[in-house]
Structures are given as C-alpha cells and as structure tokens.
Amino acid sequence: MTSKLNRRSLLTRSAAAGLLSVPAVGALAGCASGGGDEESVERGETTDDNPLGVDPEAELEVIIFDGGFGDQYALDAEAIYQESYGQVTHDKTTEIQTRLQPRMVQGDPPDVINNGGADAMDIAALIRNGQVYDLNELLDAPSLDDPNVTVRETLMPSTVEMGQFGTEEVWRLNYAFTVYGQWYSRTALERLEVEYPRTWDEMIAVCEAAKRQGMAGWTYPGVYPYYFNFTLYPFIGKIGGVEVLQAIDNLEPNAWRHDAVKAAFEAYHELAARGYVLQGSPGMTHEESQDEWNAYQALFIPNGSWVENESRRNTPEDFDMAVGPPTGLDSSDAMPFETLWASASEPFFVPADATNPIGGLEFLRVMLGQESARNFTELVSSLTCVRGAADGMDLPPGLTSAKATFEAAGDNLLVPRLPDWYKQFNNEEVGGAVAAMMAGDIDPDEAITRCQRAADATASDDSIQKFQHV
C-alpha cells in the first residue's frame, strides 16, 4: 500500500526526557467457573410495560467506573429503574479489573458493569471465554419512549458496530458518544492571533507563535501515552484513507510501514524535536496534563469529549474550550480536513453469569431513554449514543464545539478498532513506542518498527482472538 505524500520535513530528535510506562493490563485469566452461590433470576412475564420480562422483585447490582463522568447519572437511572422493579445495589470504583476479575472468574459477577478506565477488563478476552451476555435482545426491544421504535433504531452511528467483535452478536453498549481530537482554548488562539491549523505547516507556525509567548504547543499524559492515539490514528486515516487504519486493525503484514503512518509519525516527532511539547509531559498523568493545559501552559492536548467535565474544576471561566479535527498533513491528504474520530465510548456490559441479566438489560434500556440520556449530558457535558437526546439543550462550550465538529464531519468518520480489539497492544506497545518517540528516546523509524513487530507478534499468537473488518 502506498499513497502520495508531499511533506517530508524531518528534523533531528530532541534531547531525551524521562518516561513512565503504562501499567500492564493483562487479559482476564481463565474461563468463568460458574461457581457463584446465587441462582439466576428467571425471566418474568413480558408485557407492554415490561417487554423484556424483568422479575419485578429481583435485586440488581450495578458497578460504575468512577472516572471523568462520575456516577450520579447512573444513580439517577437506577432511581427510574426502581420505580418499576426491585432494589438496586450500586457501587463505584476506579479499579474495575482489580476488583471484578476475581468475581468474573468465580462466576459471581455484578449484573451490569461499566468497564471503563485504565484498569478496565479486556473485553475481547471476556468474549473469548464466554463471559459476556449478547445484547441483541435489548437492541430489538421497544425503546423506552416509543414502543414503535426499537432501541437499536434510537442509537447514533457506530454504536452497534462498537459492540461487535467480528460476529452478529453485540457484546457491549458504549453509552457516551465521544469526539476525539485536538482540544484547545479559543481564548488562547485569539491571544496568539492565529487560526486553528488545517495543515501541518500551519501547525508548526501556530506552535512557533505559542513558543514565542512562552507557551508550549502541546502537552499529553505520558503516563497514559495511548491518549496520543486519539489524534494520531485519525491523522493517519486522514493522510492515507480509511483502508490504512483498517489494515492496522486487521494486523496485516507491513500495515505500520505505510507511507501515511511514516508521515504521521514524522510530523509528531517534529513537535518534540522543535521543542513544542511542554516539558515534563512524558511523566504526567491525564489530570496533570489537563491542569497544565487549563493553566494556558500548552495550546493543544489529545483527548476526548469527557475532558470538559473531567477538568471542570480547574478550567478558567474565560477558557472557551473547543475541539477540532486532527490537523491534516497537506493537500495530498486522502480525506478532507473535517475527517474525525467520533464514536460511542464508555462501555457497559452484562456478564453472562449475572444473577439478574434481564434486569441488567432493562437497566440499559432505561439509560437509553431520553430522560436518562439528557440527564447524562446535563451532568457531565458529554453526548450520549442516543440520537437527538441533546437537541435543544444549552450546552457548555466544549460540548457545543464537539457537536458542531461532529456534524461538520458528515460521513467522514473514522473508528479505529485496535484500542478495543487488541487493548494491550494498543495501550502498551503502540502507546509505549509513541511515548518513547515523543520523549526523544527513539526516532520515527524505530517507533514504527516497534509497532510492526508488536503487530506481527499479536497476529502470530494463537492465544489471542483475532478480529477483522468486514
């Protein structure tokens, strides 16, 4: 695979900086033993008001990832659920895998799990071990607000696809709808008297203007370097076309050696080589890098639309948060400037061994109702996977920008699957290689070599389930 690329500016790498690696997140060991003490709740009578047949007396256990979205939205949805059904046991944690992996193995999991954060369980491993409940029954059920419309028909583009792993089964529901890209402050751009950069030459000029004012062009969370993929992957796709990203997802031989990958890695390395990256970024957490960004220490940060809520406490009133598509390379790009990575995120699933799986499906149906979806957006400044749920709402600056950027992209959407098909490879191998390159420890060619080597190892490892774009 090749593509015509005009811009080939290469600079010597910058001095090496410190680097912290991503904590290893291993696959779930072993299959479910089915050893739980609780007997499964039987399906009750199905009615117009209870189309899934939830046992109205059965308890429900919900575990929420306590991250950027918090858990109030879930508590509110649980209150709606409890108006018709049994008591809900609620808990929240940042340690999803640490706390729930033993319960999954023992066959005694909660009924609904919000599988988010750096300590999320590897959903592909769970699927391979038969530990996840198929959600098609939920998707084909009547929606909460209109019995003539199925749940499936209320969902935003890519939501169903993001829950599929090479088959017709839908294993998870990604509830939020995230716009990934280069997040920035409109106020900062106005102070520099520059426009949002559409090409890489313009990006270099903007970063140079920021540097002259004592401001870094970029920061990023080096402790979680896979954040860079939020802009790097769509940058690659924009340069070379969607087929380049699909080849990477499919673990095709030499996919990482495509000209578009090389151009993207060289462009990002140029940021570090020219000194446009905020000093200390390789050792920062996501919260630390966001705090520096909010303090006008850096202009751009690779992130998703949860950042507005997550960094709310430290965001200045005059910040005017916004997001743009990844800056393109030049006029040779295969896809237009507006091309964007936007997809359903914040995953939920119902364990196959759940005591009350039908209650779990109904809880997700409640979350997909207009009341819960609009409440989520009001509380956490994020879109949901429910079509039209944010229409007519008074949205904060970042979310207003994200909605406009998504709408401007039209059909030019990219949805990389490597992050969820091969979580460890994406987070540790790709993230680690990009982090080392941005810290000045290796050059782009070595970073690409590391990525391709890891892709080949993943492709040849029979213990790892493989997925393909169809």
From TrEMBL:
Keywords: Signal, Transport. Residues 33-54 are annotated as: Disordered. InterPro entries: Bact_solute-bd_prot1, Chitin_NgcE, SBP, TAT_signal. Residues 1-29 form the signal peptide. It is found in: Cell envelope. One of its GO terms (cellular component) is cell envelope. It holds the Pfam family SBP_bac_1. Gene3D superfamilies: Periplasmic binding protein-like II (3.40.190.10). Its main location: other. Transmembrane segments: none annotated. Belongs to the bacterial solute-binding protein 1 family. This is Carbohydrate ABC transporter, N-acetylglucosamine/diacetylchitobiose-binding protein. It comes from Streptomyces mimosae.
